[in-house]
Amino acid sequence: MLAAQVLINALVLGCLYACIAIGFSLVWGVLNVINLIHGSFIVLGAYLAWGLYQSLHISPWYALAIAAPLFFAFGYVIQRLILNRVITAPVLVTLTLTFGLDLILNNAMIYYFKADYRKLTLTPPMGSISLFDVVVPVDRLIATASALALTGVLYLILRRLRVGRAIVAVRLDRDAATLMGVDVNSIYAIAFGLGAALAGCAGVLMALIFPISPLTSTAYLGKAFVVCVLGGLGSVSGALAGGILLALIEGIGSTLIGPAHATTLSFVLLIIFLIVRPQGLLGRKGFE
Is Disulfide bond one of the keywords UniProt gives this record (predicted)? Predict the structure, then answer.
């Protein structure tokens, strides 16, 4: 039964990891920007869910509807006003810029919220489901379903909507997309806004499971990076596969050698993939 519990936990957490990583993968794949502010977006989304619940008693499930447009607008403005000025510069320039933006946002959260850990606790608690000695909290199940829904929405946007096809076209060949009449700068801003929206929504969901603090932004960024490498940059299904694989490795590592070494195992796996299969499990040239 222990193996079944570890597997279920990995599936639940893996879907949440995929939700964390898919926005990071989108920005990296389309804009060629390694967005170091992504982890702070996630933490800010968690604080948004915590603040709405504490002050207005708005459920985290409804907070998703607030976080998505709010973070999209935030990301859109940041890309249009700041990142767009250096978007054609070498990767090191955009990397340094997003690092600086991350420092500003993270220190602002530390100043306002302090570095104390907070926890979003639902009242009354939603309980748990037990089946054959495998126990899963109901709030985690709903969070998992929400994460899968968000991932599915992005998949449909990229496959079905005109703006999604434009994002894919820019991802494949910016110059050809420009010749076909695509406003590349607008697509860049939309893609960055979508990445920020997904990060904010992921933060809302993670607030139900993990303590909230600005200090956790680096951990979320690291997990997004690992999932992108494991699953393959440019693949929605790859992000889901990479998230489940990472969660499974962490779960097995926590059980066998202790939770303190779970992160170490995940980065060992990252190094192995970079050497053996750098394209990841399902990596491909363009988004699905």
Answer: no
**Burial (Cβ within 10 Å: 0-12, 13-18, ≥19) of residue 264:** exposed
Q: Please, is 206 exposed, middle or buried when counting C-beta atoms within 10 Å of its C-beta (0-12, 13-18, 19+)? A: buried
CA distance 163 to 36: 25
pLDDT surpasses 90 at 41: yes
- Do residues 174 and 185 make contact, with C-beta atoms less than 8 angstroms apart? no
d(CA 158, CA 72): 16
Residues 143 and 243: their CA atoms lie apart, in Å, by 15
* Helix axis angle, 91-113 to 38-56, nearest 10°: 30
Distance CA 128, CA 15 (A): 18
With beta carbons less than 8 A apart as the criterion, state whether 22 and 154 touch: yes
Helix 2-31 and helix 162-172: axis angle, to 10°? 80
The answer to whether residues 242 and 225 touch, using CB atoms and an 8 Å cutoff, is no
Nearest partner of 288 among 143, 154, 123, judged by Cα = 154
What are the pLDDT digits (tens) for 151-206? 999 999 998 899 999 999 998 888 899 988 999 999 999 999 999 999 999 999 99
- At 36, list the tokens: 């170091």
